[in-house]
Structures are given as C-alpha cells and as structure tokens.
Amino acid sequence: xxxxxxxxPHSFDQLANYRDDSLAKISPSGELLYNKSVAExxxxxxxxxxxxxxxxxxxxxxxxxxxxxxxxxxxxxxDLLVSLHSTSTVMLYRPSNNKILWLxxxxxxxxxxxxxxxxxxxxxxGNDQIDNGQERVLFxxxxxxYFYDFKTNQVSQPYREIMKRMNVATIAEGRGKPxxxxxxxxxxxx
Length: 190
What we know:
There is one protein chain. By secondary structure, this protein is mainly beta. 10% of the residues lie in helices and 39% in strands. It is built from three helices and 15 strands. It has a four-stranded antiparallel β-sheet with strand order 4-5-6-7, covered by helices on one side. Strands 8-9-12-13 form a four-stranded antiparallel β-sheet. It has a three-stranded antiparallel β-sheet with strand order 1-2-3. A hairpin with a 4-residue loop joins strand 6 and strand 7.
C-alpha cells in the first residue's frame, strides 16, 4: 500500500518549520517497507528549486500516489505517479533506483488525483485554483481533467467544455477517473 506520510525528524535541519512529506509503502500487515522524503527525492534528482518554491509549512503537499501495475515503454511496474499539489507538479518516480523519470509543472494547477489511463497516457484532475491573496479561487471558473501522452509529449483536455458547462468546481480535493467507453467519473468533493 503506497500512502503519503510525513518524515520525523525532518530531512533538512535548516528548515525547522515545514512538513516533510514522504512516500511510504506499507505491507498489508502494517509493516513499513519504504519511506522516502519527497524533498530529498527532488534535491537528489536536481529539482531543489521546486522544493524551495513552495510557501510556508506545506511547501509540497503530497496528495496522491499511484503505482504502475504493468510495464510499458514509458514506465515499469512499481514506478509511482506522484502529485505535489502546492507546486502544481506531477512526477513519475522509480523508487527502486531513486530516479525521477519524468516531471512536469502545469498546465494543471493545484491538482488532485492522477490515473494511469493506458500504456502511454496518464490523467490529472486539475482543481485549477489559485490563492488571490484573500481566498482560493478557480482560475477559469471550473476544474478540468488533463491527459498527458508520453509518446507525443502532449497535454489535452477532452472534457474541458462539458466540465465548464456542468460547472464542476471543487476548490480542493476531487477526482476524475477515465472509464472504458470514454466516460469520466467525477468526484466533486467540495
């Protein structure tokens, strides 16, 4: 079972007041099998700027981990899709060798939920919200589900217009799961 966790003590002593999110793998019997700081992963893979770019205590906000269940040309079974909400970043990470295989910041904003769709595509539920200094607001007035195609290196939003028309607008949380036949399951949490 892969789950977001928090490291104690923190990985970086010079930052006394931050939440050190980590990737934790737990056996069905509750044994901790793996635990690695996301901040350390970013720094060790040359992405320390993302770690420094977040605000306050919750600099990264790890909110979703999806393990790959099959091997493809673009990922192997056991690789992880990881969502870092506060930096609008999604990455494909291989824990077996501590390598970030792919990382992209946006066009989604403050996303929740990702899915492996087929052997070359992932989906990302973009809350697409920002803090305007007084409150969190939706950038375009609605959420969107983004598809990233590893073969073409392209991002698409095939459900954008219907989500706009249906006013899918959860400020936080939420899910978007592509279903067989082209349907899309939406959980509009709040």
